[in-house]
Amino acid sequence: MQRHRSRASTGALRPEYDRTIRKYGDQKDAEAELLAREQRVTKLHIVPLSAADAARFTEAWRSVQNRFVDDPAEAVQDADRQVLELMQRRGYPTGDFEQRAADLSVSHGAVIDHYRAAHAIIRADQEGERAQRI
CA-to-CA distance for 92 and 86, rounded, in angstroms? Predict the structure, then answer.
């Protein structure tokens, strides 16, 4: 646990460590959650992308970035779909968003806040569209 604490509480994983402590309100409970995430992810069969898939996802990502200026809402939604497809291809479970974010935080803690922020933008946009239809 001490090794996990020192690794998670410094560097790139720090934002996720801090967020989890805020969520659980207790350092010990938060660290237990982070350790449980690690243990869960080590049991998954995560595979590297093939060269062809890596090239395809790279090109798709460039396309999303290029479209962002002209249609940011659609680009963000497309980026979310790309991340979901990428996760599926690699072997991550893709059901519940919070579980996806928790799983990704183990290996991608430095960028998981960005993933959560993008998801919040998508949800707000979708809720705004629903509100306009009502």
Answer: 9
